[in-house]
Write a structure and sequence with these properties.
mainly alpha; 166 residues; 84% helix
Amino acid sequence: MARAVSRGTARLIDWELIQQGLPGVLATAVSTPAAEVSDEEYIRRVRDTFGRVRESFKEVMTKINGPVNRVVIVAFAVLVVAFAVSVGLALYQQAALWAAVPNLAGAAAIYALISKFRTLLQDQKYLLIPDRYEVALTFCRDRKQVEELVGRFLEETKPWDNMLEG
């Protein structure tokens, strides 16, 4: 199965920049006579576009950092409340069965929060993908290598865009 960011994160990504920016640079460079655009200029254009994509992804990462922090705070608060209620019920009512209910509810809430936290952390990891391609671009020496690299990037991020259509 293809790796993908969560649907919420996918909505924040500037798909127009990815789908038109990189292929646009490639199309312009291909349609321009080779004498007019050197390999160095071509690679510079693609590198600049990858830089814009990277910055766009970093903006998205900044936007999801807030929810990551909130999930951690809420999870901690749920643990504290569940523990306090359980201890209070156990001490004051001496009813061990009722003391287990807040713990079970807290455990279910923590499980849901941890799942969300894991998803957001995974999204952060995937949002670093343009960085990897930008580094790989520094090792490209000709147009063919650059075109292959851009093709791989577009192929790797295509499942993310498809999530919004489905």
